[in-house]
Amino acid sequence: MTRTNILFVLGGIVAGILLTSLFAYKAAPGMMVKETESKYTFEQSVEVFEQTAKDMGWKIPTVHDMQKTMEVNGYEVASMKVFELCHPDHAYEILKLDEERIVSNMMPCRVSIYEKSDGKTYISWMNTSMMGNMMGGAVAEVMGVASADSEKMIQSISK
After folding, report:
1. Bridge partners, 111 (sequence order)
2. Are 149 and 58 within 8 A, CB to CB?
3. Cα separation of 74 and 121, whole Å?
4. Given a cut of 90, is residue 7 above it in pLDDT?
5. Each residue of 86-142: pLDDT tens digit?
6. Torsion angle of the four alpha carbons 59, 60, 61, 67, in this order, in degrees rounded to the nearest 10
7. What crossing angle do the helices spanning 137-155 and 128-135 adopt, rounded to 10°?
8. If we measure between CA atoms, which residue out of 37, 33, 83 comes closest to residue 56?
9. All residues at 6 or more sequence positions from 52 whose CB lies less than 8 Å from its CB, including other chains
10. Superfamily holding 32-155
11. Which residues are within 8 A (CB) of 101 and not within 5 positions of it... i.e. 6 or more apart?
12. How far apart are CA 27 and CA 53, in angstroms?
């Protein structure tokens, strides 16, 4: 192989790495966080979502009313609630293992329901299955199940 060929191949590899990195940088946010429109009003979305989560065996230990929180701090934003969802059986499978506890900062799962300036209600959530797959082991297994459950809850209100 000539020197020119070697430089051409190396240049192609570097260009490929740079283009792949750029694509990943631009695409990652859209793959990590999902959003869909609700078929209900904000209030109805909250009610149906909470009931669906409970019917599926999930607990909602905390609901953050971001509109009220921001109001207390002197800001006005549209209606928004962030739900912390916990399924004790799933959480235990991760928390019982020392090496898996590193992901505890992503627990419990969160789903947000909010209004936008277009007057429509939306739901957003993290792609926990993708996150889990990057971690492997028990985390991948548990987050895969949690992700499937979250998708079912969200389907109950999505358009």
Report:
1. 83, 125
2. yes
3. 23
4. no
5. 999 989 998 898 988 888 888 888 999 999 999 999 999 988 888 778 878 888 888
6. 180
7. 170
8. 83
9. 152, 153, 156, 157
10. TT1751-like domain (3.30.310.70)
11. 94, 95
12. 30
Locate 142 and state its tokens: 């548990």
In which residue are the tokens 């109950």 written?
A: 156
- Residue 93 phi, psi dihedral angles, 5° rounding: -60, -25
Three-class DSSP labels, the chain: CCHHHHHHHHHHHHHHHHHHHHHHHHHHHHHHEEEEEECCCHHHHHHHHHHHHHHCCCEEEEEEEHHHHHHHCCCCCCCEEEEEEECHHHHHHHHCCHHHHHHHHHCCEEEEEEECCCCCEEEEEECHHHHHHHHCHHHHHHHHHHHHHHHHHHHCCEC
**Residue 11 pLDDT grade (very low, low, confident, very high; cuts 50, 70, 90):** low
Residues in the chain: 159
Residues 6+ apart with CB under 8 A from 90: 142, 145, 146
User: What is the Cα gyration radius of the chain?
Assistant: 21
